[in-house]
Specification:
The protein is of the alpha+beta class. The protein is 16% helix and 39% strand. The protein has 2 helices and 9 strands, in the order βββαββββββα. Strands 1, 2, 3, 4, 5, 6 and 9 form a 7-stranded antiparallel β-sheet that branches.
Length: 131
């Protein structure tokens, strides 16, 4: 799993985990991409799509998924899709799930895919979308 680097060494007992980590990303096909991300990059050349899950380090709780592109032009674009239980069906008792996603964020990225995911996470944190 990847996480944001810690700038100085600390003793294990002093370390308070924070931030976001993610398992290795996987490349996904265009048909798996959220419609808003596909629309944001329509017409772009050299686009590859990737997905990973974000995990809140202190609680080890899943935060949701990230879909990201890596373009030849050292620019990335990502969305943060989530699914949540909006209600419960009164007849069946089944949860009613709602899918949402952030608007696509475009940003410069020169640190490879790991750098792009890290930058995207910082943007999500600054926007108050993830802790």
């Amino acid at each position: 799993m990847h996480n944001q680097p810690i700038s100085e060494a600390v003793e294990d007992d002093d370390w308070i985990p924070d931030g976001v980590m993610w398992p290795p990303e996987r490349e996904i096909d265009a048909f798996e991409v959220h419609a808003s991300l596909a629309k944001a990059v329509a017409g772009s050349r050299g686009v590859r799509f990737f997905s990973t899950r974000l995990i809140d380090v202190p609680s080890d709780a899943p935060l949701g998924a990230v879909q990201l592109i890596d373009e030849i032009a050292a620019e990335a674009c990502g969305i943060y899709p989530t699914t949540y239980v909006a209600d419960v069906d009164a007849e069946t008792g089944d949860p009613i799930l709602v899918d949402e996603a952030t608007r696509p964020f475009k940003f410069p990225s020169s640190g490879g895919l790991d750098g792009a995911i890290s930058t995207f996470c910082k943007n999500l944190q600054l926007a108050g979308i993830i802790p």
